[in-house]
Amino acid sequence: MLQIVFDALTLGSLYALGALGIALIFGVMRLVNFAHGDVIAFCVFALLWPSVDAVAIVFAGNLPWYLLIPFVVLVGAGLSVLCEIVVFRRFRDASPATMMIASFALGFVIRYFLLMLFTSRPKSISLLPALSQPVEIFGARLPLLQLITIVTTLLVLAGLTIFLRRTRFGLEMRAAAENFAMARMLGVRANRVIMLAFALSGALAGAIALIFGSQTGTADIQMGAAIMLMAFIATVIGGLGSLGGAVLAGFLLGAASVVMQVVLPVDARPFRDAFVYGAVILVLLFRPQGLLVARGTKERV
Amino acid sequence: MSNATTVDTHALDSDKIAVRQPSRFSLAGRTIWTPLLLSLLLVAIAVITFMIGSRPFNQTVIDVFVRVILVVGLYVFIGNSGVMSFGHIAFTCLGAYAAAWLTINPAMKKISLPGLPEWLLATKLPYWQAAVLASLFAGVMALIFGRVLMRLSGIAASIATFAVLAMINAIYSNWESVTGATSSVVGIPIVRTIWPYMIAAVVAVFIAWAHAISRSGLALRAARDEPTAAAASGVDIPRERLVAFAVSGAIMGLGGALMAHSVGVVTPDTFYLGLTFTTLSMLVVGGMGSLSGGVIGVVLLSALIQALRWLEAGVPIGDSTFAIPKGLQEIALGIIMIVILALRPTGLMGNREVTLFRKKTK
Amino acid sequence: MAYKTRLLATALIAVSSAFPALADDDKIIVGFATAESGFMEAYDKPAQDAAMIRIDEINAAGGLLGKQIEVIKADTKTDRAEGAKAGLTVIDGGADLVVVSCDYDFGSPAALAAEDAGKISFFLCAESVKAGIQGVGPHSFSASVLAAVQGATMAEWAYNKKGARNFYRLLDTWTEYNKGICDGFDWMLPKLKDAKLVGQDTFKNEDASIAAQISRIKALPQEPDAIMLCTMMPGAVSAVKQIRAAGINAPILNGSSMDGSYWLSAVPDLTNFYVPVQGSIYGDDPNPDVSKFNAAYKAKTGSDPSSQYAYPGYVMIDVWAKAVERAGTTDADAVVAELEKMKNEPTIFGPRTFSAELHHQNTTKYEIIEVKDGKPGVVDSWTISEPVPLEALLK
Amino acid sequence: MSLLDVSDIVIRYGRLTAVRGVSFSLNEGDILFITGPNGAGKSSLLRAIAGVTPIVGGSISLDGKSLAGLAPEDIARLGLSMVPEGRHVFGSLSVEENLLVGTGMHVGKNGWRARVASDLEAVYDTFPILRERRNGQAGLLSGGQQQMLVIGRALMTNPRLIAIDEPSLGLAPNITDQVYERLMALRAQRGLTLLIVEQSSTRAVMTGGRMVLMRGGQIVLEGDAREVGTGDQIQAAYFGYEDH
């Protein structure tokens, strides 16, 4: 039982962090950023030296952890901010559909850029190998990594909450997320807030890359896609613009997935995702505005 | 003045005037040029292809026609309702598999898809009959899903449509005895002549046009541009959306059936995110507010892709060959799409239609 | 004028590298409709390089039927619709043999185009029974061995050599290949006296975490004697890593797709991990010819093969060329007839058999690779006691 | 020199022209009412001054500095605080947080912390109800309280000019009285310049000050509110009896 809770929390953590990255950007510019998954993949590949060989040539991946973690997080933040400056800045006034397709095209560019440098063959990396040990906790034997994933996520969430609640940047971001035009009329600098949102979102992508990379031991250009999709769904059912809702929904999706895997009979297990998505439709029908509705968020899609 | 922000380009376009009831006949007469010109474009492409006579190029153009059908299908719902849908490829999937069920040799079907009902196992139809039935099947399924989904609007509707796609994909990827799960369903008769695809694309264009000028299509576009006003004047938005959803589902199904016949194999992963985004991109780049935008988006982007492939393969310039590195084609395509959207956020066509009389549209 | 039209057509269709050669009686043309970009490229390229080695050898030795073999290529871009085009392109270029992508799903559009045109098609390394008569038609073959043989081989070998009795089966439902391995395992298991399945589960290759599946294994009263893991890259690495991280140390049995040392760094000091291979890339194959091939491969591409999947490419040209030689023509029906006469035809990478029912291998000798402390090496070789019957393959 | 100069500006939405050639100027400490019927272009004018809506012709300058091409946040930082129609409180933020959003522009200036703290006290003194509710969610305030909050929030930027769009909209008359009372007191205390948009001229007449009347995107009447704000002349102008 305890095991199931931990499993659900592990998967939910990844989804929650992903959903947060999408919700942050959606909040300030109503952009559903489909490039987010590719930013995650990019962060993992940043650890490798470009090569078309099957064997990965590890580059930054050999750094000690206290340098490795900031490195990956900074790569994520940097790339994300770059996307904003080069691409998304030109789409401030565009419709959500246009922005969405632009973000998709951008993700496409990042993906094929990686493909050109690294080929499509998934590469193996040993990221933070010390974490692959099992530990005993409350009578359940868990991989250390699972525990660290959960703790990291909780720390990131706590850190982000403090940042948003206690700092001026946080205040401006929350105001901007709720009513961007009004915040600007009060002197809140649009570009700075949006860049900050992108930086945070990118940093979260870096965090996911680290967790996911050490969990799977693989760098694959497609790796961000599955998390990105779930995160996107979590953002919507959580209530667009509501960061708390995104996190909650991320954990719920993780839990739903794990619970279905446990309770479904073996023949029905391959259909797990069909049940999960069915549940998503039900949630949307009963709470079209999402689980937690951000007050004052006007829908524009 | 309070709603100055919503008084925007659509405010006085011909749709709204049309809602104020001119004669249906004159409306059809005024707008018929759009489907005619688009069809002319498609026919011209087909004839040129036929004259060139290269088999690979023929196949390329068949692909373009299939995409035209799919994007026109998307336009019928997304363009008219303004609601983004990520789920329409689900109906393409339904159509493709339905076509497979109806056309595969019964002897082969008994082995590979034993879970099909007896009457279906025994059926073998010509591909065009199968395509019509597949399209109807997809349309009916769209009607069923739509009844539930059309209560939603905005991004909740978008996600719900995606959830439908993901559900159908999960089911078709695992229902071993009926869909063959993830393995390719084979034995679908391959049709390599270009004409059926051209005819289907032209038919799709005309269906989209007929829907757009129907009472339902006009009401839906009025609701897209001014939801409050439309609702106040008695437009039942969910119902009009449902009509568009079913019509577009049927067109997507037709596209799926033809796609199956163009390649000869179907697998569930063909009908998932990749195709969803390719077709959506073509629609948005072309201009999702107009039928012409959809068709022209497909033709131009397909031409662009071919041109880039050609560059990738190498172009002889004098004695040397100029070629862009492998893989750069996709990167260039992505960048060009971003540039087009940055310059023309409403797509190449905006909300305009091609027509002979420029005054009638804006 | 005709030349101009053709040039225009060629330009438009963007044929890669070669311009369509006219049907030329002085040479024999092999057309590769394979992926030069996209994710299949990583699988097609090594096998294609190996095929080129055999072609170069044949050309150096005076050619086939006294003619040089010429190669034309068209890129499928790892896309089915593009695959059909690529197939048509090489057929228009006059290909006598159409070589298609490694995977059945991605290779079949081109193979179907070849079948339509009455040409022989060969899948580079597809391991589904459909890659051949069953899924394409009477002129289609695969150069590799059925996935089911791999599952059956591992089950029987572990039963006999590792004393395994309690098996656990973990299936990744992503591809037919994965299911094929488990099908072979399922067919073999009841034949092994006292062996039983103590549990089974499924996952998806892209699952971010398989924690729930692992918890189920750990909930068993005792750890199974062997875990049959039917999956492939990239999810396989993640699955193995998570299984070991959870403290499960039972032997893990796999299909050939997990061959190669390039991924082992992801699971440091991996032990008790087994894969069947057609030949060893680690320089320790009992057959010296395999090592000789490895050297030739390194000379051509600059590195050793990264997995056993290079080998089928070589085998393909080898058996096809023999059949052409025996038939005395490249005519498709005559060559097919010669290929179908092959019974245990020796090749460097094990014997090959084709029949009028099956253009694929339903039994072969496999080398067993064991990964121990992170080091892979040949420990044994095994041939299943009876071929996997067609009924089990088509189930 | 006047504080705000609006000269001959034109605003278009697509093919629809909302404001056609409006000019006026405003001196430090002035109060100007812009009145007119729905659709006259009042809000557009205000949004253009705040930099939210682009203008296609004419010019706007604040303290002699042209506002052309400036973003709303830059204009706010020059000392123009806009209170748009419909109040727009940040509903999920607390009352105090709402007040603090606009103080970002002071960060880093000499002694800004003390300044913000004293500004906050001043706003609380002006609107005691806000002090009472300082930690409550702003979305839960009543309409009148929200109106006070947005005015207080605008004051926190230390503006030289406040532009308010329909402060009385949706408020009971006695609450509106209170709001105006506070505004006038602030004007007296701080020498604040006020630009107020209202549909009817009643408030302008009650409060006094200059008034312009807009209709069809143009100024059709202007003068001292108490002089022009009553009688037939304004009736005619408001409803467009005479042709211009």
UniProtKB/TrEMBL annotation, chain A:
Matching InterPro entries? ABC_transp_permease, BCAA_transport_permease
Top-rank taxon of the source lineage equals Bacteria
Kindly list the places in or outside the cell where this protein is found, as annotated in its UniProt entry: Cell membrane
Per the record, the coiled-coil ranges are none
A GO molecular-function annotation = transmembrane transporter activity
Where are the membrane-spanning stretches? Answer: 12-32, 39-59, 65-87, 99-118, 138-164, 193-215, 221-240, 247-268, 274-294
- Has UniProt tagged this entry with the keyword Membrane? yes
Alphabetically ordered keywords of this record:
Amino-acid transport, Cell membrane, Membrane, Transmembrane, Transmembrane helix, Transport
Name of the protein: Branched-chain amino acid ABC transporter permease
Q: Which Pfam families match?
A: BPD_transp_2
Question: In which organism is this protein found?
Answer: Mesorhizobium denitrificans
* One of the record's GO cellular component terms: plasma membrane
CDD domains for this protein: TM_PBP1_LivH_like (cd06582)
Q: What's an example Gene Ontology biological process for this entry?
A: amino acid transport
Q: How does it sit in the membrane?
A: Multi-pass membrane protein
UniProtKB/TrEMBL annotation, chain B:
Q: Does the keyword Membrane apply?
A: yes
**CDD domains referenced in this protein's UniProt entry, alphabetically:** TM_PBP1_LivM_like
The record lists the membrane-crossing segments as 32-54, 60-78, 85-107, 127-145, 152-174, 194-214, 242-264, 331-350
Query: Mind telling me which GO cellular component terms the entry cites?
Result: plasma membrane
Q: Where in the cell is it found?
A: Cell membrane
Please report the record's description of how this protein sits within the membrane.
Multi-pass membrane protein
- Cite the entry's keywords alphabetically: Cell membrane, Membrane, Transmembrane, Transmembrane helix
* Major subcellular location class: membrane
Q: Which GO terms label this protein's molecular function in UniProt?
A: branched-chain amino acid transmembrane transporter activity
Q: Does the keyword Cell membrane apply?
A: yes
The family database entries (PANTHER family) matched by this protein are listed as:
BRANCHED-CHAIN AMINO ACID TRANSPORT PERMEASE PROTEIN LIVM-RELATED, HIGH-AFFINITY BRANCHED-CHAIN AMINO ACID TRANSPORT SYSTEM PERMEASE
- Its name, as the record gives it, is Branched-chain amino acid ABC transporter permease
UniProt source species:
Mesorhizobium denitrificans
Automatic annotation (TrEMBL), chain C:
- Fetch the Gene3D superfamilies from UniProt: 3.40.50.2300
Q: Which UniProt keywords apply?
A: Amino-acid transport, Signal, Transport
Domain spans labelled Leucine-binding protein: 28-374
Known InterPro entries for this protein? Answer: BCAA_transport, Leu-bd, Peripla_BP_I
Q: Which residues form the signal peptide?
A: 1-23
- Presence of the UniProt keyword Transcription regulation in the record: no
**Would the keyword Signal be found if you checked this record's keyword annotation?**
yes
GO terms, biological process? amino acid transport
Tell me its family: Belongs to the leucine-binding protein family.
Name it.
Answer: ABC transporter substrate-binding protein
Species of origin reads Mesorhizobium denitrificans
UniProtKB/TrEMBL annotation, chain D:
Concerning PANTHER family, the annotation shows:
HIGH-AFFINITY BRANCHED-CHAIN AMINO ACID TRANSPORT ATP-BINDING PROTEIN LIVF (PTHR43820:SF4)
Protein name as it appears in the record? ABC transporter ATP-binding protein
Record flagged with keyword Nucleotide-binding:
yes
The entry's family comment says:
Belongs to the ABC transporter superfamily.
Record organism? Mesorhizobium denitrificans
| Gene3D superfamilies, per the entry | P-loop containing nucleotide triphosphate hydrolases
Pfam families assigned to the protein according to its UniProt record, in alphabetical order: ABC_tran (PF00005)
Q: Which domain of life is it from?
A: Bacteria
Keyword vocabulary terms for this entry: Amino-acid transport, ATP-binding, Nucleotide-binding, Transport
